[in-house]
Amino acid sequence: MSKTLGVWDRPLPWLRDPAVLAELERLGYQRVWLGASPPADLSPVEPMLAASTSLAVATGIVNVWDGPPDPAAYARVTSAHPGRFLLGVGVGHPSMVGARYTKPYDRLASYLDGLDEGGVPESGRVLAALGPRVLRLARDRAAGAHPYLTTPEHTAQAREILGAGKLLVPEQKVVLSTDPGQAREIARSQLAMYLTLSNYTNNWLRLGFTQADLEDGGSDRLVDALVAWGDEEAIRGRIAEHWDAGADQVALQVLNEDKMGVLRALAPTTAGASF
Q1: Dist. CA 88–CA 33, nearest whole Å
Q2: Residue-number span of the structural domain to which 53 is assigned
Q3: Is the pTM of this model over 0.90?
């Protein structure tokens, strides 16, 4: 598989702007990943695909706790825009789901059963996967995995579990700034919520971070590992680390206010030989 770049963000107005989508397409980004648990009916997806020509769209991710799968929505979108949509699904967080959150692995497997019954092919879906068990599920029952808030070291571990031929698309947060204080302040403001969520903190502990790294907004070591910051060369270096570790695509989530300015600076069509 070729090494490509995507864009990850919530379906905010800027990301739904047809002019923005057209520009992302021209800049060489291959796919937009919609975060913030887009609905299973895929209503935000269709206008984005209609407003672009070749740009692909994926959900990152539909939360399996929000309701039953909607194979009809998948069929509708893929029929209208063949080859341009990828269904990303995954489990939510215990603190956000409450009493409904029981045996998340079983819930995810059951959701996949529903997709199977509705005719959604394994090749058309990926799983949000951090730990080994769900990565193996992504290997066995999906096209691959879409890990969120991880490191190149995790990408290497995920590739080993997935094996060759499976899609691996880690999300990577970036801050285009050479000021360490400013960059880390922006990064910590985005990481604060995740430091309270056990699925992420457990994954970081598996990667070799310690409980001390999780305290006081996250250590510099943790922040720097999770959020790529610096000049364009430094950020491209982190992207290349993911590629070298086995990623097929890296989905960039820009934390700067000027999102498009950063995406223009890092675009495949402007990177030249830097990658």
Answers
A1: 9
A2: 4-274
A3: yes
